[in-house]
Input
Amino acid sequence: MITSAMNSLRLRFIDRLDTLLPGMQRQLGQIRGGEALEETFGAVLVDVHRIAGLAGSFGFFDLGNRAAETEAALRRGQGGGFSRATVDEAAQHLAGLVEAMERTLDGAQGTEARSQVN
Amino acid sequence: MKILAVDDDPLLLELLEATLCGAGYENVTLANSPLDALRILEESLVPFKCILLDIQMPEMDGIELCSRIRKLEHYQTTPILMITAMTERSFVERAFAAGANDYISKPFDPFELATRLRLAEESIQQQRIVAEKVFALQHLKREVERKSRFNPETAIPIEDVPGVVDQVELENHLLQMSRSEQYQTVAVAFQIEEFDAIYARSQPSELFLTLTDVAECIADQLKRTSFIMAYAGLGVFVCLLEKNAPVLSPELLQFAQYAVDELQLEYEDGTPCKVTLAMGEVQHKTLFFSGAPTAIVHEAIESARSVASQSRFPQRHPSRIAKAV
Output
């Protein structure tokens, strides 16, 4: 049973996804373009780490798993000195995560999903 | 149970608070940065009973924070649980090395969280039981030590060292020898230098162990010949052995001292207990001797004491070993 406190937190998490999405799409473009990789990886990692830690607790298991995989790929990219292969891998994971975020938001914004949340 | 939860993500902190509350833990304080956590811990009048730390935080990570918490006076044994995602398991080992006790996986499973906290509570309870038992044992030990304190002059029996008997038995052994056997027997004694200082600093039980160790070192040097030895009190060991025993060489003291040094004896507080042996002159009965057969035992003891006291004033008496050896 979802308590009202958990329900409120879940809604805030969805709001956070909505807020983060445009920035993450931009960061994905930067990574694909090889722009300011060190800074971009660092910034995106903070958000991805938070999604990985929270999503599963609100029932978004696929999103949580993708975020965890993306976090691991981003760390490999950092650890590997931003080699082409590790950057491409991180970009691929991040693209999958962005899609998962969009799907989650689409689902949550639907009337049916809203009623389940409430 | 008073809990402190530390994470830089306010949403995760609130989720953690709600989950903890659902598991029956309502006394939860939230800190959104390591510095905030350290401030809360230092200002809290009642110590927290359990601390939950996120690993990934900017400025100072949870591992560094854990290490700093462990240095705080009231938090050396408080259960610290790291909050970690599957991707961070490699950090867990470092967290344990920094003093963490357990970890909680993200995303939170209320059942797992409650189980981990219950384990932490049990750990606190066990610590309390252990602390009470340690206190009781220390008290008991002090009482036993107080009651078992012996005078430095007491010739306490040394047990379980082959060849070592008590002094009365050693003298009886001498008295029961034939006259010719008495002529073929010599007495030599070893004195622990500055025994009074060692006696003053040791608990009775550790002094007993030190004397046993020293007896074993001396006996080990004499075992190639027939001998008996006794502890005569005041740090003196007296030995009876055959007059022409090869072990009665000038190196006897040196070898015994090597054996003692190898033990690296320590006081209860871990500081080294330096035991230095002095060896007296070898005493034996002469054809013209008319006194008690046991006189050689007392003369050997006196000689060892004399050599040891001379070594305390090396300017006046440079030698620690009697010349007669």
Q: What stands out?
A: Chain A has a mean pLDDT of 87.
